[in-house]
């Protein structure tokens, strides 16, 4: 499958995900209107849908039907969005811009932004619970996997470490620990849930766990680099923020050149774990290469 | 079953719930420590465990094994606690005291309190997913019920209406709408989940839905009354808060006397729906009477 095929596939998959999100989320005019408007404001702010795309590609790699994986694909995106809404709050990272638009609390006020995040998190589980069970995996398995990923030892734990690390000089190991928790965990969960809807064998699930982990770390290194090298306009969020708040990042610890090499090394490692899928893994491979080749 | 039996049963049930909560929640010394400490701080602040108690009593009323209902009993308490932590935030109700102790953000800071609420909400789903399925109800059913109750049209929707109604003169219908969403929904969910673990018939589930709804409204009317008539010390939270922030409450709209009558009327209505359970419903009946007879 030549790499030129990726972009149209990405576009149509993102559209499919957006349509599913529109149908899964409560309508904008459902009462109380403010919260439903605020939920949709953050969800439809033009994200790349990276996590859903990975989830669906993983289902495909395991020989599954992509339509069975739409619910978990949306669930991971909704969980990701809730975490952004809360991370942007004044009492957390205090960000005014996200995906090129004012952040939720800037538009709806702080109290409403807290509730919007809460509602998205709750809705993520509601959406996930629509996923059909397979021979090997039950809805309980999906929910346990998802809750563990979103919980105090992974996604939220990473934000805690991030919050506590601000203004401190972290070493590489501490930084990796944050990236594992904040980024790699949800990327891993995305591919795993996709695979589970395709009734994946334990061996393939293990391979995707490796893939998600390394891809997640690579992704975060690249994000750190982009924060330094790109403008606010290009990023859609405040550029140079990490340095301004004296945040430990890959470029700050290793320098730009070594950070780029680290991203490439992690991506190669991720690609290696796809070997077990043969030709069926080519979509995941394309996505991983595409992420590495983002302009940075 | 004479009413004198209730207190020792309540005490031992509360202890059973606390023991289960201790085993379900991540350990206090798990990394990152701050969040796990903060989660336990709010969970073990001496709540009455009303929702778990109702969940277990409902399982009993449907002839079920109480131990099968411990996971949902804890899940509803953890969801309740998350909602308190977030409602107390400066950008929401801005409360300094809860259950007689400083609120989460007073002790751990605002950012950590947001994350603590998030972690509790996520953990609530993790705990719920441990509930054994029955012949009629799957883990997916539990999760859908729970997510709907906690979501933007019920629990969170109620807080939205509450936030938007502050300083405005609400009428009785608007007030009921808030109480339905903020209080009655989670009480109803508590008894329903308990019943589902006992493989309840649809008819009994319907009766418990009526029971939970009316008991929830009665409970909230009584809470409004207590806010006026009790001291901060007796309440364990700031007394007179509703009047101070010009909040619409039952006593403010109907006066104390009519509010008391309304609470009694709703409790009678709740008790009526227990008839279908015969003697097996006596524990639920005792709890309902006990709540009505709180000093107010």
Automatic annotation (TrEMBL), chains A, B:
GO terms for biological process: terpenoid biosynthetic process. Keywords: Isoprene biosynthesis, Magnesium, Metal-binding, Transferase. GO terms for cellular component: cytoplasm. Pfam families: polyprenyl_synt. The keyword Magnesium applies. It comes from the Bacteria. The keyword Glycosyltransferase does not apply. InterPro entries: Isoprenoid_synthase_dom_sf, Polyprenyl_synt, Polyprenyl_synt_CS, Prenyl_diphosphate_synthase. One of its GO terms (molecular function) is metal ion binding. Its cofactor is Mg(2+). PANTHER family: FARNESYL DIPHOSPHATE SYNTHASE (PTHR43281). Belongs to the FPP/GGPP synthase family. This is Polyprenyl synthetase family protein. It comes from Oceaniferula marina.
């Amino acid at each position: 499958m030549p790499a030129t095929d990726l972009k149209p596939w990405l576009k149509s998959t993102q559209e499919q995900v957006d349509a599913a999100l529109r149908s899964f989320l409560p309508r904008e005019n459902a009462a109380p209107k403010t919260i439903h408007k605020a939920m949709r404001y953050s969800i439809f702010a033009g994200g790349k849908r990276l996590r859903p795309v990975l989830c669906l590609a993983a289902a495909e790699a395991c020989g599954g039907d992509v339509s069975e994986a739409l619910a978990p694909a949306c669930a991971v995106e909704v969980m990701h969005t809730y975490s952004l809404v809360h991370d942007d709050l004044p009492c957390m990272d205090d960000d005014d811009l996200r995906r090129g638009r004012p952040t939720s609390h800037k538009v709806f006020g702080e109290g409403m932004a807290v509730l919007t995040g809460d509602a998205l998190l709750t809705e993520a589980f509601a959406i996930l619970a629509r996923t059909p069970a397979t021979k090997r995996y039950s809805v309980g398995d999906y929910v346990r996997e998802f809750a563990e990923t979103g919980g105090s030892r992974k996604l939220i734990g990473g934000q805690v470490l991030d919050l506590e690390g601000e203004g401190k000089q972290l070493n590489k190991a501490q930084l990796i620990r944050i990236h594992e928790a904040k980024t790699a965990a949800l990327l891993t969960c995305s591919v795993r849930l996709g695979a589970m809807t395709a009734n994946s064998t334990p061996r393939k699930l293990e391979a995707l766990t490796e893939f998600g982990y390394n891809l997640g770390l690579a992704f975060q290194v690249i994000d750190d680099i982009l924060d330094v090298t790109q403008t606010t306009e290009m990023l859609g969020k405040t550029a140079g923020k990490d340095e301004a708040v004296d945040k430990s990042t890959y470029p700050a610890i290793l320098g730009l050149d070594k950070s780029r090499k680290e991203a490439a090394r992690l991506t190669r490692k991720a690609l290696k774990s796809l070997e077990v899928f043969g030709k069926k893994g080519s979509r995941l491979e394309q996505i991983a290469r595409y992420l590495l080749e983002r302009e940075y």
